């Protein structure tokens, strides 16, 4: 069993909490009112909008040292839905990793919608969670959390692959915003 802290109580935070709970893991769910409450989990999921990351990292940086920190954000321009807001050669996850050098930073959960996480399927397919990161043990821990809930975990490669995962998340969000796909659907993986 893994102890997981989730910072963010929105639909994604709640869906990830449900996934972890289904897998038998303990979950601490922290909202804005809990800013002074320490994140006690071995794994800390940042389930907040991209603009909130800098404040969380600034406030909680020391307490996140040594922990597995999972970034789920998609740094999308939500006014226009026409671009990512990070440099073309970077990612939100790379920014977090630079700000938290003593944490083991992963990118995951950003290419799925909350509904597909909660239901465990995308159409007829098992929901797949892509995980990018440079720490093999951290990836193995998160993989076990994901698979213990009946979902599929996929190793997307090194942390530098976060950029491509963010682009995929951006594409899915922009298609849903344009009502070309449903917010309860999304991309599935056939293997």
UniProtKB/TrEMBL annotation:
Domain Pyrroline-5-carboxylate reductase catalytic N-terminal: 33-75
Superkingdom as given in the UniProt entry: Bacteria
Example GO molecular function: oxidoreductase activity
InterPro entries referenced in this protein's UniProt entry, alphabetically: NAD(P)-bd_dom_sf, P5C_Rdtase_cat_N, STEAP_metalloreductase
Record flagged with keyword Oxidoreductase: yes
Record keywords, A-Z: Oxidoreductase
UniProt xrefs under Pfam families: F420_oxidored
Oxidoreductase listed as a keyword: yes
PANTHER family registered for this protein in UniProt: DUDULIN-RELATED, REDUCTASE
Protein name: Diguanylate cyclase
């Amino acid at each position: 069993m893994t102890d997981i802290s989730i910072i963010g109580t929105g639909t994604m935070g709640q869906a990830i909490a449900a996934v972890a709970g289904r897998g038998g893991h303990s979950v601490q769910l922290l909202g804005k009112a809990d800013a002074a409450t320490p994140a006690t989990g071995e794994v800390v999921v940042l389930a907040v909008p991209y603009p909130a990351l800098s404040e969380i990292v600034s406030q909680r940086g020391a307490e996140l040292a040594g922990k597995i920190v999972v970034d789920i954000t998609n740094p999308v321009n939500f006014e226009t839905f026409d671009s990512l807001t990070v440099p073309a050669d970077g990612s939100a996850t790379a920014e977090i990793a630079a700000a938290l050098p003593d944490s083991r930073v992963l990118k995951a959960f950003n290419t799925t919608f909350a509904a597909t996480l909660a239901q465990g399927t995308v159409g007829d397919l098992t929901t797949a969670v892509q995980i990018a990161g440079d720490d093999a043990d951290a990836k193995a821990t998160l993989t076990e959390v994901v698979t213990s809930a009946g979902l599929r975990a996929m190793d997307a490669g090194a942390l530098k692959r976060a950029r491509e995962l963010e682009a995929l998340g951006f594409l899915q969000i922009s298609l849903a915003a344009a009502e070309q796909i449903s917010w309860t659907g999304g991309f599935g993986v056939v293997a």
